[in-house]
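Hi R.,

As promised on Friday, here is the backbone we talked about, encoded as C-alpha coordinates. Could you run it through your design pipeline when you get a chance and send me back a sequence?
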Protein backbone atom coordinates (compact mmCIF):
# COMPACT_ATOMS: atom_id res chain seq x y z
CA UNK A 1 0.00 0.00 0.00
CA UNK A 2 1.11 3.56 -0.65
CA UNK A 3 1.58 6.67 1.43
CA UNK A 4 -2.00 7.89 1.25
CA UNK A 5 -3.36 4.96 3.25
CA UNK A 6 -1.80 6.35 6.42
CA UNK A 7 -4.63 8.90 6.40
CA UNK A 8 -7.25 6.17 6.49
CA UNK A 9 -5.99 3.86 9.24
CA UNK A 10 -9.01 4.78 11.34
CA UNK A 11 -11.43 3.38 8.77
CA UNK A 12 -12.97 0.04 9.71
CA UNK A 13 -13.40 -1.78 6.43
CA UNK A 14 -16.38 -4.14 6.51
CA UNK A 15 -15.97 -7.81 5.74
CA UNK A 16 -17.08 -7.55 2.13
CA UNK A 17 -17.15 -11.33 1.77
CA UNK A 18 -19.88 -11.62 4.42
CA UNK A 19 -22.35 -9.54 2.45
CA UNK A 20 -24.97 -10.82 0.04
CA UNK A 21 -23.21 -11.60 -3.27
CA UNK A 22 -22.69 -8.37 -5.21
CA UNK A 23 -23.23 -10.19 -8.51
CA UNK A 24 -24.13 -13.82 -9.24
CA UNK A 25 -21.79 -16.06 -11.18
CA UNK A 26 -24.38 -16.32 -13.97
CA UNK A 27 -24.69 -12.54 -14.32
CA UNK A 28 -20.92 -12.24 -14.30
CA UNK A 29 -20.62 -14.77 -17.14
CA UNK A 30 -23.28 -12.85 -19.09
CA UNK A 31 -21.29 -9.63 -18.72
CA UNK A 32 -18.11 -11.48 -19.67
CA UNK A 33 -19.75 -12.57 -22.93
CA UNK A 34 -20.62 -8.96 -23.70
CA UNK A 35 -17.12 -7.74 -22.84
CA UNK A 36 -15.59 -10.33 -25.17
CA UNK A 37 -17.98 -9.33 -27.96
CA UNK A 38 -17.13 -5.65 -27.53
CA UNK A 39 -13.38 -6.27 -27.46
CA UNK A 40 -13.64 -8.19 -30.72
CA UNK A 41 -15.60 -5.45 -32.51
CA UNK A 42 -13.05 -2.80 -33.37
CA UNK A 43 -15.61 -0.80 -35.39
CA UNK A 44 -17.66 -0.08 -32.27
CA UNK A 45 -14.50 0.98 -30.45
CA UNK A 46 -12.86 2.98 -33.24
CA UNK A 47 -15.98 5.06 -33.82
CA UNK A 48 -16.28 5.98 -30.15
CA UNK A 49 -19.69 4.33 -29.79
CA UNK A 50 -18.96 2.50 -26.56
CA UNK A 51 -21.47 3.34 -23.80
CA UNK A 52 -23.04 6.11 -25.90
CA UNK A 53 -26.84 5.97 -25.53
CA UNK A 54 -27.39 8.80 -28.03
CA UNK A 55 -26.46 6.48 -30.92
CA UNK A 56 -29.63 5.07 -32.52
CA UNK A 57 -30.22 1.97 -30.43
CA UNK A 58 -33.02 -0.54 -30.31
CA UNK A 59 -34.23 0.12 -26.78
CA UNK A 60 -36.32 -3.03 -26.69
CA UNK A 61 -33.18 -5.11 -27.25
CA UNK A 62 -31.28 -3.06 -24.65
CA UNK A 63 -33.98 -3.80 -22.09
CA UNK A 64 -34.01 -7.50 -22.99
CA UNK A 65 -30.25 -7.66 -22.54
CA UNK A 66 -30.41 -5.85 -19.20
CA UNK A 67 -33.05 -8.26 -17.91
CA UNK A 68 -31.05 -11.23 -19.17
CA UNK A 69 -27.91 -10.02 -17.39
CA UNK A 70 -29.86 -9.38 -14.17
CA UNK A 71 -31.40 -12.85 -14.24
CA UNK A 72 -28.22 -14.54 -15.40
CA UNK A 73 -29.82 -15.81 -18.62
CA UNK A 74 -26.54 -16.59 -20.39
CA UNK A 75 -28.16 -18.27 -23.40
CA UNK A 76 -30.33 -15.25 -24.22
CA UNK A 77 -27.35 -12.90 -23.97
CA UNK A 78 -25.31 -15.12 -26.30
CA UNK A 79 -28.18 -15.36 -28.80
CA UNK A 80 -28.57 -11.57 -28.92
CA UNK A 81 -24.82 -11.09 -29.36
CA UNK A 82 -24.82 -13.67 -32.15
CA UNK A 83 -27.57 -11.63 -33.79
CA UNK A 84 -25.23 -8.62 -33.86
CA UNK A 85 -26.67 -6.45 -31.07
CA UNK A 86 -23.29 -5.28 -29.78
CA UNK A 87 -24.05 -1.58 -29.38
CA UNK A 88 -27.20 -2.48 -27.50
CA UNK A 89 -25.12 -4.84 -25.34
CA UNK A 90 -22.74 -1.98 -24.54
CA UNK A 91 -25.61 0.18 -23.38
CA UNK A 92 -27.11 -2.76 -21.49
CA UNK A 93 -23.96 -3.04 -19.35
CA UNK A 94 -24.12 0.69 -18.62
CA UNK A 95 -27.81 0.47 -17.67
CA UNK A 96 -27.22 -2.61 -15.52
CA UNK A 97 -24.46 -0.82 -13.61
CA UNK A 98 -26.65 2.25 -12.98
CA UNK A 99 -29.25 -0.01 -11.38
CA UNK A 100 -26.93 -1.61 -8.84
CA UNK A 101 -28.13 -1.08 -5.27
CA UNK A 102 -24.61 -0.87 -3.85
CA UNK A 103 -21.84 1.24 -5.39
CA UNK A 104 -19.53 -0.57 -7.80
CA UNK A 105 -16.56 0.56 -5.68
CA UNK A 106 -17.38 0.47 -1.94
CA UNK A 107 -17.64 3.90 -0.31
CA UNK A 108 -14.73 3.16 2.02
CA UNK A 109 -12.43 2.70 -0.99
CA UNK A 110 -13.96 5.58 -2.94
CA UNK A 111 -12.91 7.87 -0.09
CA UNK A 112 -9.30 7.63 -1.22
CA UNK A 113 -10.31 9.31 -4.49
CA UNK A 114 -13.13 11.63 -3.45
CA UNK A 115 -11.60 13.03 -0.25
CA UNK A 116 -8.90 15.66 -0.35
CA UNK A 117 -5.52 13.97 -0.72
CA UNK A 118 -3.23 16.97 -0.89
CA UNK A 119 -0.10 16.65 -2.96
CA UNK A 120 -0.13 12.86 -3.16
CA UNK A 121 0.57 11.93 -6.82
CA UNK A 122 -2.35 10.48 -8.77
CA UNK A 123 -0.25 7.38 -9.48
CA UNK A 124 0.03 6.66 -5.74
CA UNK A 125 -3.68 7.21 -5.10
CA UNK A 126 -4.59 4.93 -8.01
CA UNK A 127 -2.23 2.21 -6.83
CA UNK A 128 -3.72 2.34 -3.31
CA UNK A 129 -7.27 2.12 -4.65
CA UNK A 130 -6.42 -0.88 -6.82
CA UNK A 131 -4.57 -2.52 -3.93
CA UNK A 132 -7.62 -2.21 -1.68
CA UNK A 133 -9.95 -3.48 -4.42
CA UNK A 134 -7.74 -6.53 -4.89
CA UNK A 135 -7.42 -7.10 -1.14
CA UNK A 136 -10.94 -6.40 0.11
CA UNK A 137 -13.44 -7.49 -2.55
CA UNK A 138 -14.67 -11.07 -2.99
CA UNK A 139 -14.21 -13.01 -6.23
CA UNK A 140 -17.17 -12.12 -8.44
CA UNK A 141 -17.24 -8.46 -7.37
CA UNK A 142 -13.50 -8.22 -7.99
CA UNK A 143 -13.84 -9.87 -11.40
CA UNK A 144 -16.62 -7.47 -12.42
CA UNK A 145 -14.54 -4.39 -11.62
CA UNK A 146 -11.45 -5.92 -13.22
CA UNK A 147 -13.31 -6.73 -16.45
CA UNK A 148 -14.75 -3.23 -16.68
CA UNK A 149 -11.44 -1.49 -16.00
CA UNK A 150 -9.60 -3.73 -18.46
CA UNK A 151 -12.28 -3.02 -21.07
CA UNK A 152 -11.98 0.73 -20.54
CA UNK A 153 -8.20 0.48 -20.82
CA UNK A 154 -8.54 -1.50 -24.06
CA UNK A 155 -11.02 0.99 -25.50
CA UNK A 156 -8.88 4.02 -24.61
CA UNK A 157 -5.80 2.45 -26.16
CA UNK A 158 -7.67 1.33 -29.28
CA UNK A 159 -9.70 4.43 -30.10
CA UNK A 160 -8.42 7.77 -31.38
CA UNK A 161 -8.86 10.59 -28.88
CA UNK A 162 -10.53 13.84 -29.79
CA UNK A 163 -7.73 16.28 -30.62
CA UNK A 164 -9.26 19.04 -28.52
CA UNK A 165 -10.87 17.16 -25.65
CA UNK A 166 -8.93 13.93 -25.41
CA UNK A 167 -10.77 10.67 -24.75
CA UNK A 168 -14.00 11.48 -22.88
CA UNK A 169 -14.96 7.89 -22.02
CA UNK A 170 -13.43 7.95 -18.49
CA UNK A 171 -15.36 11.14 -17.67
CA UNK A 172 -18.64 9.65 -18.87
CA UNK A 173 -18.04 6.57 -16.69
CA UNK A 174 -17.17 8.47 -13.49
CA UNK A 175 -20.72 8.29 -12.04
CA UNK A 176 -20.69 4.50 -12.52
CA UNK A 177 -17.59 4.02 -10.38
CA UNK A 178 -17.88 6.93 -7.93
CA UNK A 179 -20.66 8.57 -5.97
CA UNK A 180 -20.08 12.09 -7.29
CA UNK A 181 -21.91 14.73 -5.23
CA UNK A 182 -22.23 18.52 -5.54
CA UNK A 183 -19.25 19.08 -3.25
CA UNK A 184 -17.06 17.14 -5.67
CA UNK A 185 -17.87 19.24 -8.76
CA UNK A 186 -14.95 21.60 -8.27
CA UNK A 187 -12.63 18.62 -7.92
CA UNK A 188 -13.82 16.69 -10.96
CA UNK A 189 -10.59 17.19 -12.91
CA UNK A 190 -8.53 15.73 -10.06
CA UNK A 191 -11.00 12.85 -9.64
CA UNK A 192 -11.01 12.17 -13.40
CA UNK A 193 -7.20 12.17 -13.48
CA UNK A 194 -7.08 9.60 -10.68
CA UNK A 195 -9.73 7.47 -12.38
CA UNK A 196 -7.79 7.52 -15.66
CA UNK A 197 -4.70 6.38 -13.76
CA UNK A 198 -6.73 3.61 -12.09
CA UNK A 199 -7.76 2.43 -15.57
CA UNK A 200 -4.17 2.57 -16.82
CA UNK A 201 -2.78 0.63 -13.85
CA UNK A 202 -5.62 -1.90 -13.61
CA UNK A 203 -3.94 -4.46 -15.86
CA UNK A 204 -0.93 -4.49 -13.53
CA UNK A 205 -2.94 -4.95 -10.34
CA UNK A 206 -6.09 -6.89 -11.24
CA UNK A 207 -6.18 -10.25 -12.97
CA UNK A 208 -9.23 -10.94 -15.09
CA UNK A 209 -10.68 -14.21 -16.36
CA UNK A 210 -12.22 -13.73 -19.79
CA UNK A 211 -12.11 -17.12 -21.43
CA UNK A 212 -12.94 -19.60 -18.65
CA UNK A 213 -16.56 -20.60 -18.21
CA UNK A 214 -15.81 -21.68 -14.65
CA UNK A 215 -15.70 -18.93 -12.07
CA UNK A 216 -12.44 -18.39 -10.23
CA UNK A 217 -13.47 -17.62 -6.66
CA UNK A 218 -16.92 -16.82 -5.37
CA UNK A 219 -18.85 -14.27 -3.42
CA UNK A 220 -20.26 -16.67 -0.88
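Update: got your reply. Pasting your designed sequence below so it's all in one thread:
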Amino acid sequence: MGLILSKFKSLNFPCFGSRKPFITSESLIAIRLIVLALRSNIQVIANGWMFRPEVGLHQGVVQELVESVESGDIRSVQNLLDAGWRLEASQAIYTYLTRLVDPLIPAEIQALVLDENGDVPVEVVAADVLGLIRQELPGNHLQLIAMLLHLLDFVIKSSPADELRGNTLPISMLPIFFNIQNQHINEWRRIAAIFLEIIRQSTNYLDVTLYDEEEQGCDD
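One thing I noticed while checking it: The domain at 3-9+21-205 is CATH 1.10.555.10 (Phosphatidylinositol 3-kinase; Chain A).

Thanks again,
M.
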